[in-house]
Design goal:
Blueprint (H helix, E strand, L loop, with lengths): L1 H40 L7 E3 L1 H9 L7 E5 L3 H6 L1 E2 L2 E3 L5 H4 L10 E5 L4 H11 L5 E5 L9 E2 L2 E3 L1 H9 L5 E4 L3 H6 L6 E2 L5 H4 L11 E4 L4 H12 L5 E4 L13
Parallel strand pairs: 1-6, 2-4, 2-5, 5-6, 8-12, 9-10, 9-11, 11-12
Antiparallel strand pairs: 3-7
């Protein structure tokens, strides 16, 4: 009788063990399938594309095409100030990982980076694609291609407005049409368009280090005025990349 009971007990243990192993195997398979599905659902980082200098120069020269790109100079502030692409903002590589979040609105737009040789801009480009940016280009550096460089600073509209509200601008120049200027502009702003720069330059500050901020409708006319200012010897000129068609400047009049 004891032997018979032992057989039944052994059989029960074998059945229970088999069921347990089957359940464990099923759970392991389900876990593996879940992990595979999660990996399949992950967004693959975009590839950084190379851009030749002549292509970037062509984009910069096209008033409409340049609006489709954000161009970033990742060199030091000193190198940027010495000469950079006309519509490029400065985001130094040393602080790039901490600063890139301020351009997150461009994750699905074309972003072009450059430096002197392409090495620092390559590092910055990797930071962007690893954080979800989809259209990133690493362009020839200023030592690899002979770009036309300017010395005035370019800022995104939000930063430009913040500076003015913070009192950093000694003079604000509105480079739009007279009718647009009269309809509303910043307090104490003056209206100087590219065509009348020569006739109005006598009204400019005598201090060549005065902070002069320039904006317009699209960033093109203001860039022309900014360049004229630097040719007159002004050393602290800032142009807004964004014009009134792209951002609300919050005019008081």
């Amino acid at each position: 009788m004891k032997l018979k009971n032992s057989k039944y007990l052994l059989l029960a243990l074998l059945v229970a063990s088999s069921v347990g192993l089957s359940a464990c195997g099923q759970k392991a398979e389900e876990k593996a399938n879940t992990q595979t599905e999660e990996k399949a659902g992950e967004t693959k980082a975009a590839e950084v594309k190379a851009m030749k200098g002549d292509e970037l120069a062509k984009i910069e020269a096209d008033k409409k095409e340049k609006e489709n790109y954000l161009v970033i100079d990742v060199r030091s502030p000193e190198e940027y100030k010495a000469g950079h692409l006309k519509f490029a903002i400065n985001m130094p590589i040393d602080t790039f990982e901490a600063d890139y979040k301020k351009i997150e609105a461009f994750k699905d737009k074309d972003v072009v980076l450059y430096c002197n040789s392409g090495k620092k801009s390559a590092k910055a480009a990797e930071v962007l694609v690893n954080n979800g940016f989809q259209k990133v280009y690493n362009a020839d550096g200023v030592k690899q291609f002979k770009y036309e460089l300017v010395t005035f600073e370019s800022k995104m509209g939000a930063d430009f407005i913040q500076d003015i509200k913070g009192g950093k601008a000694g003079l604000v120049i509105d480079a739009r049409e007279a009718k647009d200027f009269e309809a509303g502009s910043f307090d104490k702003a003056v209206n100087i368009m590219p065509d009348d720069f020569e006739s109005k330059k006598s009204s400019l500050p005598t201090d060549k280090n005065a902070a002069i901020y320039v904006f317009c409708y699209s960033g093109n006319k203001s860039a022309t005025v900014a360049e004229s200012l630097t040719k007159e010897g002004y050393t602290n000129v800032v142009n807004s990349l964004d014009g009134t068609k792209e951002i609300d400047f919050g005019f008081s009049k």
